Amino acid sequence: MTEPIDGAKQVRIIEHIKEMWETVMDARKNGRSIGLVPTMGALHRGHLSLIERAAAENDVTIVSIFVNPIQFDDKQDLGAYPRDLARDAASAAAVGANAIFAPSVSEMYPDGFSAYVDMTGISEALCGRVREAHFRGVCTVVAKLFHITDPDRAYFGEKDAQQAAVIKKMAADLNFNTEIVTCPTVRDTDGLALSSRNTRLDAAERNAAPCLYRALNAGAALFRSGESDAGKITEAVRAVLEAEPRARVDYAEIVDPASFRGVPKARSGDVLALAVYIGAVRLIDNLRL
Ligand code: AMP
User: Helix axis angle, 230-242 relative to 211-224, nearest 10°?
Assistant: First the structure.
């Protein structure tokens, strides 16, 4: 017998796939709808906005917290990733999470694990081009989480616009019966998109980091003024970033929102996407033109 997760006052932390399955099956038997918010933890207001939305739209909200090793190309980035399960569980519960799924690496990837989800096309641009096997890791873990939690809806942030688009395509192509819901980017008062990686910025780097949002806005303003040449817009974006000595541009591109391929002429609805190192920390952000 598993305890019911809906209506529980205290959030349940579930570490094993079998227990998660049983819990989901119980909820289903009782006719409950299920919302899933996949995260890597170190929860901030951006994550909490996804959890709130899931809690408003589903009977049961599951938050997964798993720092997925196979999506990291940089082992130092993986090692430095902030982790605090007790704090995360409390903040997720406060905004309506019913269960936290927090498996170990060996629970998700036992010895001999060898099935991966590889997407072509959309996942080869931008972050897929510069971070080898990143989206293979993301799609594999999300596909597993969908099988484990059987969600009606799964919630992703527009901050990771390419990731949300890749997951939508994967869910459609592999016939997952899950609606992919995207939620707006939550920012600090100075425009910096909230990210778990922001905690790794020192004070000077934190001061420098809003240059991403300033650069995006400079590009968007140029587009609104009538410029459509993608090269000229990204040049203006780069100029803002290059004026900040702590910033090093990884990419600055205007892409089609469906294919994430670069466009020569920007159109309304295209995505202006950035990846920028501030010191050793790689931050991404984007804006819809
Ligand atoms: P992560 O823990 O970084 O893998 O993020 C988990 C989910 O939260 C992803 O769908 C992200 O896009 C989303 N997310 C991260 N930062 C923000 C933000 N500032 N605003 C909205 N959603 C976010």
Answer: 150
